[in-house]
Amino acid sequence: MPVYTTAENSKESQTYEERHYPESKWVSTKVVGMVHKDARSTGFRRLFKYIQGANEPSEKVEMTAPVATKIVPGAGPNCESTFTVSFFIPPENAENPPKPTDPDVFIETWPAQTIYAKQFGGSPKDDEYVSHAQELAQELSDKNINQNYWFTAGYDSPFKMFNRRNEVWYVKDDKANNTQ
Hints:
Blueprint: E1 5-6, E2 17-21, E3 24-33, H1 36-51, E4 55-56, E5 67-72, E6 81-88, H2 91-94, E7 99-100, E8 105-110, E9 113-120, H3 126-139, E10 150-154, E11 166-171
Antiparallel strand pairs: 1-2, 2-9, 3-6, 3-8, 4-7, 5-6, 5-10, 9-11, 10-11
């Protein structure tokens, strides 16, 4: 799991955390589609093959949490969205991660960033993710966030029945503070 530090929350009523993440490496794949669950499943299968050895030098890589999915919504209500599903690359592999053999899988570096995270339980359906993301966006109305995309994050195996950890994220938009 990526390390982060948590900012002091100023209001007891906040239902989110402000987290500061250092630069990190992720293995990712993009899926274009209409349904979050289907895109996440397709992406997960591609990435699972990578960690099982579909890489050069055909070595297994530790499964990590969370499975993060970046969602860039389509232009309209019936347009396809772009889903980028990502697995965190653990520090022991981050310096020189195995090269993916699937052309749809790639290694990327996430910059150091501030993420606002809202946590919830259960096995959410697509509309529940959207509902939590909308709630978080409303709570962050006084913050500078990038509203062009948002993330879902799942921390548990699909076989875990209770005390599941899910999150939605927005990234702080530091550029919004710049006056150029």
